[in-house]
Amino acid sequence: MATITSVVDTTTTTNQGKPGDTVQINGTGLSTTTRVNFGAASVTPASVTATLVTFVVPSTAPCSGQVSVSVTSSAGATSNALPFFVVATPTTTGLSVTCVSAATGGPVTLFGTNFLSGTQVGVGTVGNVAVTPTQASQVTFTAPANPGQVATVSTQPVTITTAGGTSTSGTTLVDYYLAPAITSVLPTSGTAGDQITVNGTSFVGVDTVTFTDSAAATANAVFTPVGGTQLVATVPAGLATGAGTITVHTCGGNSNAQAFTIT
């Protein structure tokens, strides 16, 4: 009589996996195996020896849940059964943030379903991050930096890989932003209420324009974007006169501090 001692998915190295995975049945007396009983499905073995039978999880396997695995010999005898868990394919539904800095990356929480057996999160062409989810519906990871980025904004798909496969690419996206850089301000001095033209690069998604005065006090300015290389800012009230600076901030981080004098 055949006896099964373990059932191991060769992809996950556990007794869980997905349709299409190759599974090893280890045991004794297996040499006359003609059929693998995978739940209600009858599967033809891929290989048979006295101690090892391999088969492929059928496409008719349930989407998820436990099934019993046993083998039947040419004489019609059926072995003991051991459990195998079919793991559902993960899905992603969103992120805790919509963008990160290309220079540094940053913390992100990915939301979705069927995450518990997750091994890694993929961020497009940027790279993969090892994870060990503790919840089925979310996992937090650090998105890696994207130092080779050229475009101001690079949109990357975020996926998760589990024992059930890899989630669909393109359904959840994160934007990587280059930090803005100021090249000039015109004029280079002004008083509260004056409009200042700020020129530079990567002025996409600007959220704050900050004036710093000679006493290191700061104030955010009202501003109007003109394009990816220019904006117009109004010098805010309440700042001390003297040499100060202007900075621009986006999801990519802070720009350089460009000299500006409050008069």
Would you count the extended β strands for me?
A: 28
Overall pLDDT metric? 97
Query: N- to C-terminal separation?
Result: 96 Å
Shape: rod-shaped
What portion of the residues fall into strands of 2 or more residues? over 45%
The proportion of residues forming helix, as a percent range, comes to under 10%
Provide the gyration radius in Å: 30 Å
Which structural category fits the helices and strands? mainly beta
**Secondary-structure element order, N to C:** EEEEEEEEEEEEEEEEEEEEEEEEEEEE
In terms of per-residue confidence, which ranges show pLDDT below 50 for 5 or more consecutive residues?
A: none
Separate helix tally: 0
Q: Describe the biggest sheet?
A: 6 strands, mixed
Describe the protein.
- By secondary structure, the chain is mainly beta.
- It has no helices and 28 strands.
- The chain has strands at residues 3-9, 16-17, 22-28, 33-38, 41-43, 47-48, 52-56, 65-73, 82-86, 91-95, 99-101, 106-113, 120-123, 127-130, 138-143, 153-162, 165-166, 173-177, 181-186, 189-190, 195-201, 208-212, 218-220, 223-227, 230-234, 242-250, 253-254, 258-262.
- The strands form six sheets. Strands 11, 13, 14, 16, 17 and 18 form a six-stranded mixed sheet that branches. Strands 20, 22, 23, 26, 27 and 28 form a six-stranded mixed sheet that branches. A five-stranded mixed sheet has the order 2-9-8-4-5, with no helix packed on it.
- The N and C termini lie far apart (96 Å).
